[in-house]
Amino acid sequence: QAELVESGGGLVQPGGSLRLSCAASSWTFSISGRAIGWFRQAPGKGREFVATITWSGASALFPDSVKGRFTISRDTGKNIVYLHMNSLKPEDTAVYFCAAADTSAGFGYLEEKQYTYWGQGTQVTVSS
């Protein structure tokens, strides 16, 4: 069983918006104190970094492909991390995964290998 669960995916038209959520899948696991990342994988392609946020929420990083369109936030009270996706494009179509690191340091983590725990993903399809 995956420690994380994503939700909020779906079908949206180009230019539309979606908000994805990432939370612990059970009470035995907590995202408290961990950096959280979002990655995506399109058919036939490798997994791509999308966003990361530190535990405090003071720092977040994005690749150029989504910068200015995606934001990330976390509700520490509810232990949920959100990926807000605006101005969606067909090339944003992918399965989106959230991941949790063992720690939270610096400005966040950009690489898959820096994350220990993963969700099973949620499909986002951008199409007219």
Main β-sheet description = 7 strands, mixed
**Which class of secondary structure composition applies to the elements?**
mainly beta
Shape: globular
| Secondary structure: helix percent | under 10%
Write a compact overview of the structure shown:
The chain is built from no helices and 11 strands. The protein has strands spanning 4-7, 10-12, 18-24, 36-41, 47-53, 60-61, 70-75, 80-85, 94-100, 117-118, 122-126.
Could you explain how this protein is built, in words?
The chain is an all-beta fold. It is built from no helices and 11 strands. Strands 2, 4, 5, 6, 9, 10 and 11 form a 7-stranded mixed sheet that branches.
Question: How do the helices and strands line up, and which of them pair or pack?
Answer:
Blueprint: E1 4-7, E2 10-12, E3 18-24, E4 36-41, E5 47-53, E6 60-61, E7 70-75, E8 80-85, E9 94-100, E10 117-118, E11 122-126
Parallel strand pairs: 2-11
Antiparallel strand pairs: 1-3, 3-8, 4-5, 4-9, 5-6, 7-8, 9-10, 9-11
Task: List descriptors.
mainly beta, 11 strands, 128 residues, seven-stranded mixed β-sheet, globular
